[in-house]
Amino acid sequence: MDSYISLISWSPSSIASGALSDASMLIIVVMAFIGATIITRVANVNTSFNFSVNFAVMLGGCLAVHSWTSEILLPVSNDLVASAVSANFGMTLAGFVLLFSYRHSV
């Protein structure tokens, strides 16, 4: 498991100003992958380029919201849960942007 986590330990401190651990980054990447899969299936654009764009936008939304909300203390006892909550909020915003951009492509 440590070898998988070390693959994504490249995250620069400018992206995530809060303390983003390797496990939190792994959760964010997995959630962005699942979100990109859902958006690809909903939008009916099944190309690898669109999946890559969807994944990049989802990951960017997750990291942006995580860095914006790093100063806010959520009433949860675990950093992983707080990362998952902020990632869900970021993916929701990014998903709406993607669906808005794909509205004429179907």
Number of domains: 1
**Shape estimate:** elongated
Q: Describe the biggest sheet?
A: none
The number of helical runs is 4
Please tell me the overall pLDDT: 80
Strand content: under 5%
The first-to-last residue Cα distance is 40 Å
The sequence of SSEs as H and E is: HHHH
- Which structural class do the helices and strands define? mainly alpha
Helix content: 55-70%
How many distinct beta strands?
0
Radius of gyration: 14 Å
Low-confidence stretches: 12-17
Primary descriptors:
single chain, 106 residues, mainly alpha, 68% helix, elongated
Please provide a written account of the structure:
The chain has helices at residues 2-7, 22-43, 48-68, 79-101. The protein has 106 residues and is mostly helical. Helix 2 packs parallel to helix 4 (79-101). It is elongated and about 40 Å long. The chain contains four helices and no strands. The model is unreliable at 12-17 (pLDDT under 50).
Compact overview of the structure:
By secondary structure, the protein is an all-alpha fold. It contains 4 helices and no strands.
Write the layout of secondary structure elements.
Layout: H1 2-7, H2 22-43, H3 48-68, H4 79-101
Helix pairs in contact: 2-3, 2-4, 3-4
